[in-house]
Amino acid sequence: MILHALVDDLGVARVAIEGGATVLQLRLKDLPTAEIVERGRPFRDLCASTGVTFVVNDNVEAAIELAADGVHLGREDEGIERARAAGLLLGLSAQNLDEAQAADHEHPDYIGAGPVWATPVKVDAPALGLDGLRELCEGVEAPVIAIGGVAANNANRCVEAGAAGVAVVRASADAAAVRAALERAAV
């Protein structure tokens, strides 16, 4: 089961990895590439030393400079072709089935779908709910990673709806509990 931890704090990143995160996504919003690279080096080193996949949010050039495993691009972000040329894993965002199907045409390694539930991280985005997540998972070929309001008390429901895994922001510091919930869903 895939567990993405979206982080901007190295301490939280360590806790998330110790708790079972399989992917660490560096989420430093609205910073210049040089600053993302500078601040991202310790995260890259942590992932390299623990065997955890390292993904950079929204910035292909920073991902390349950091020798990241991948990049996650939002709906408005550019760089799909550059990411492919660099051999990066590619994640794309979708908030509904139409966006997911459009993203799926780009043949990403995964689609980050959500928010599944209301979340303060994406206040203007309507929640998919579990039925919407199920429909989205069934409507695309790429693996779907559910995001948005996901925590230990509901992560298993995302997997039961067809998601290949979940991504957590606020629950990154509670990755061990989220991982345990995912493992219960896989049984």
Short characterization:
The chain has one domain (2-186): Aldolase class I (TIM Barrel).
How would you describe what is shown here?
It is a single chain. With 187 residues, the chain is α/β, with parallel strands linked by helices. The chain has one domain: TIM Barrel (Alpha-Beta Barrel), CATH 3.20.20. Helices cover 40% and strands 20% of the residues. α1 runs parallel beside α2. The chain is globular, with a radius of gyration of 15 Å. The model has no long low-confidence stretch (mean pLDDT 94).
What topology does this entry show?
Elements: E1 2-7, H1 10-18, E2 23-26, H2 33-50, E3 53-57, H3 60-65, E4 70-73, H4 80-85, E5 89-94, H5 97-104, E6 110-113, H6 129-138, E7 144-147, H7 155-160, E8 165-168, H8 175-186
Helix pairs in contact: 1-2
Tell the overall outline.
globular
User: Would you tell me the structural class of the helices and strands?
Assistant: alpha/beta
User: How far is it from the N-terminal to the C-terminal residue, by CA?
Assistant: 11 Å
Which architecture would the CATH scheme give at its second level?
Answer: Alpha-Beta Barrel
| Number of H- or I-type helical stretches | 8
How do the strands line up in the largest sheet? Answer: 1-2-3-4-5-6-7-8
How many structural domains can be distinguished in the coordinates? 1
